[in-house]
Design goal:
alpha+beta; two-stranded antiparallel ribbon; 24% strand
């Protein structure tokens, strides 16, 4: 039986960079009526 370690599930560096870029540019605008609008800044 083969045992798996956490290292085998580590995402690639390109995937991590994509997630970081999205997290950096993603914002939610809260409107006066209480609704929220998601947006992504460039």
């Amino acid at each position: 039986m083969k045992h798996f370690t956490q290292d085998e599930y580590a995402p690639r560096l390109q995937t991590l960079q994509l997630i970081r870029q999205f997290a950096y540019t993603y914002r939610v605008i809260k409107m006066a009526d209480g609704s929220c609008i998601p947006c992504c800044l460039n």
